[in-house]
Amino acid sequence: MSAYPTATERPRMVRVSGTRTETPTVKTLTFRDEACSRASPGQFVMVWIPGVDEVPMSLSKMDADGLSAVTVKRLGEATAALQSLGRGGILGIRGPYGRGFTVATGDALVVGGGCGMAPLAPLVERLAGAGVRVTVVVGAETWSELLFLRRVRRALSAVDGRVVAVTEDGSYGVRGLATGPVREALGERRFDVVYTCGPERMMQKLLQLSERHGVLLQASLERYMRCGVGICGSCCIGGYRVCRDGPVFTGEQLREVTGEFGVFRRDADGRRTALAK
Amino acid sequence: MAGADLRVEVAGLAMRNPVMLAAGILGVTGLSLRRVAEAGAGAVVTKSIGPSPRTGYSNPTLVGVECGFLNALGLPNPGAEEFAREVEVAKEGDVPVIASIFGPSEREFAHVASVMEGAGADGLELNVSCPHAEVADLGQSPDLTAGVVKAVKKSVGIPVLVKLSPNVTDIVAVARRAEEAGADGLTCVNTLRAMAIDTETGRPILANRVGGLSGPAVKPVAVRCVYEVSRAVGIPVIGCGGVVDGRDAVEFLLAGASAVQVGSAVAWRGLTVFREVAEGIRAYLERKNHRSVSEIVGLSHRY
Questions:
Q1: Residues A231, B61: C-beta atoms closer than 8 Å
Q2: Known catalytic residue at B225
Q3: Quick one: fold of B8-302?
Q4: Residue ranges of the domains in chain B?
Q5: β-bridge mates for residue B187, sequence order
C-alpha cells in the first residue's frame, strides 16, 4: 500500500451483471469487482448512482470468482433508482469499508430483521463453511418480505444448523418479533456469539438479552454517511465512527453508547432524531 | 528538564502540543471531539457552525484523488443553538475547543460567535473561505473579511482566528486586513477549489460538481501561504494542508506557523496521527537541540 492510498477512494465504475427480485420491496444487484470480492461479511461499500446520490450498502455477496452484490430495499429516491437499474446499468463503487463480522468458533445465533439479512446471509455461508453450529432467526413483517430464507436454509442444509422464520403478522413461521424465538433459543442452549443486523430497537433488545445470558454480541449499525473513510464525522455514535470503527460493533462497545444506541440517530444536518419504537 | 517541550501558546490559547484537529473533520459531535482530544490533539476545531440548521449537499460529497481528497459537504450543521451542547461535551476533553463558525452576514457571524462563547468555546475560527458554499466565501474580499472580524471581535472576548483561502490572488492582502481588523491569529489555508470528473459517464463526481482539495496534494501551496503570510503579519499563523507526519508539521513551523492542523490524514493514519505528528516534532526538536517549538517557528525566513 502506498503512503497515501486516497486515489483508491475514487468510485470504480462497474456494470450490473445481474439482478434478482428477492421480495416485493427488495432487489439484489450483482456486479464484478475485485476488491469487493475479497471483503468480509458486514463490510460495506459506497454506491454511487450517477446523477442521483451515493449511499452506503452492505455487501450481500462476495464470491471468490469476483462477483459481488448489494441487496437494496426501496426506501427513497436513491434506492428506487438503484432498483430501476437493469443488467448493464452503471454504478460507482468505493470500498469495501469498515469492520465486518468476526467469524467465531462454537455455537452461533444469527438474527436478521428485514433487510438486515443482507450482510448476514454471506456470514451464515462463511460460518457454515467454517464448521460453526448455526441457528438463524429470520424476521420480517410478513411472509413475502422474509429475506434470504431459502438462501440460509440452503447454506445450512449440509451442516448442523437450524432456521427459524418469524413474521409479525403470523403469515409464516412463528408469529411476533424476532426477539421471541431468540429469547427461547438463548434459554435452551449455550451460544458463544450472537450476530445481528436489523431495526436498531431489535438490536438494542438483543444487547440486553446477550448480556443477560453472558453471550458475546456483534451487531451491524446504520447511520447517515458521507465520506465512508472516517473523517467527516456524519455517522458518529458516541465517540465511534460507524463507517470506520463499525459498522459491526461488539456488545462491549455498544454498552459504552447506550445513551445513543437504540435511542437516537443524527440527520444530515447533525441534529438528533429519536429512533422509532 | 529532559527532552523538548511541546507546549505552545497560540493567540492566547495554551496547548499541550501544537497539533490541532482541523475544522470539518469529525467535529459534528462533542463525543467525537473528545475522542480526538484523548487521541492526543493539542486542540480541536469543530465543524463549521452557522446560525441555523443546514443539510448540506447530496452525496457524493467526498471523492479520493491523487494524494488527497475533494469534498463538498455544503456546511451541514445543526445550527448554533443546537450545537452549543456538543461544545459543552467537547469541553470535557481538557484541550481548547475552537468553534469554527460561518454566517451569511456580519450580524449573523457575531450572533453565532456569542452563542459559541456562551457554550464555553475557548476560541473561534472564522470560516470565511469555504470554496464550495457562497455563504462562507467572504474571504475572497479583504474588506468583507475585515468587516466580519470587527463584528465578531466586538461581540466576544475569546481569541478569534481567521481561516484564509488559498483561492485568492493575494493572500497577504487579506491577511493584513484581518490583522488590522483585530484578528488574534490566522489559519492558512482552507481547501483549494477543485474538481474531478468520471470519464465513464462524463459526470463531475461531486454532487456539487466543484469542491475543495485537501491532503498532501495541497501541502506545498499551504507552506507557501504560511511563509508569505507569517512574514507579513505580527499575529500567529497556524498551518493547515496535508500534514501527515512530524516532518510535514516541522516544515510548516519552519515556514512560520506556530501550530499545525491535521485533517485528511485521519483517513489513512487513523486517530493515532495526532500523537505521531506531535512525537515527530519532539524528535526533530531534540535531534536539532531545540528546547521548545517556538525556537523553530519561522526559521526559514532567514533564507
A1: no
A2: no
A3: TIM Barrel (3.20.20)
A4: 8-302
A5: B163, B238
